[in-house]
Amino acid sequence: MDPKKNKNNLIGKSIPRIDAPAKVTGKALYTGDIVLPGMLHGKILRSTVAHAKILNIDISAALALPGVKDVITAKDTPCVKFGNWRLFPQTQDELPLALDKVRFIGDEIAAVAAISAEIAEEALTLIKVDYEIIPAVFNVDDSLASSAPMIHDGNPDNTSNISLDRKIDVGDIEAAFKDAYYVREDSFTVHSHSHAYMEPCASLAEVDSEGRVTLYTSTQTPYIVQCLLASTMEIPENYVRVIKPSVGGGFGGKMELRAWDFCSAFMAKRTGRPVRIVLTREDELAVGRRRHGMKIKSKVAFNKDGTIIAKDFEAYLDGGAYNSMGPTATFLCGNFGAMIYRYPVYRYRGYHVYTNLPPSGAMRGFGAPQALYVSETQMNMAAVDLNIDPIELRLKNAMVTGDKIEGVTTISSAGLVESITKVAEMTNFLEKKKNLPKNKGIGIGCYSFISGGVFNWFNTQYNFSSCEVRVYDDGTAHLLTMSADIGQGSDTVLRQILAADLGLPVEKIRLTAGDTAMTPKCDLGTWGSRVTLMNGNAILDASKKIKEQLSKMASLKFDLNVIHEVSFSDERVYAKANPKRGITFGEAVKMWVKANRGEELTARGYYTPRDKGLTTPAYSFGAQVAEVDVDPETGVITVERITTAHDCGTVINPLGVEGQLEGAIQMGIGYTLCEQFAMRDGKTLNTTFLDYKIPAAEDMPEIVSAAIDTYEPEGPFGAKEAGEGLVIPTAPAISDAVFQATGYRCKELPITPEKILRATGKI
Amino acid sequence: MDPKKNKNNLIGKSIPRIDAPAKVTGKALYTGDIVLPGMLHGKILRSTVAHAKILNIDISAALALPGVKDVITAKDTPCVKFGNWRLFPQTQDELPLALDKVRFIGDEIAAVAAISAEIAEEALTLIKVDYEIIPAVFNVDDSLASSAPMIHDGNPDNTSNISLDRKIDVGDIEAAFKDAYYVREDSFTVHSHSHAYMEPCASLAEVDSEGRVTLYTSTQTPYIVQCLLASTMEIPENYVRVIKPSVGGGFGGKMELRAWDFCSAFMAKRTGRPVRIVLTREDELAVGRRRHGMKIKSKVAFNKDGTIIAKDFEAYLDGGAYNSMGPTATFLCGNFGAMIYRYPVYRYRGYHVYTNLPPSGAMRGFGAPQALYVSETQMNMAAVDLNIDPIELRLKNAMVTGDKIEGVTTISSAGLVESITKVAEMTNFLEKKKNLPKNKGIGIGCYSFISGGVFNWFNTQYNFSSCEVRVYDDGTAHLLTMSADIGQGSDTVLRQILAADLGLPVEKIRLTAGDTAMTPKCDLGTWGSRVTLMNGNAILDASKKIKEQLSKMASLKFDLNVIHEVSFSDERVYAKANPKRGITFGEAVKMWVKANRGEELTARGYYTPRDKGLTTPAYSFGAQVAEVDVDPETGVITVERITTAHDCGTVINPLGVEGQLEGAIQMGIGYTLCEQFAMRDGKTLNTTFLDYKIPAAEDMPEIVSAAIDTYEPEGPFGAKEAGEGLVIPTAPAISDAVFQATGYRCKELPITPEKILRATGKI
Question: ipTM of the assembly?
Answer without folding.
Answer: 0.95
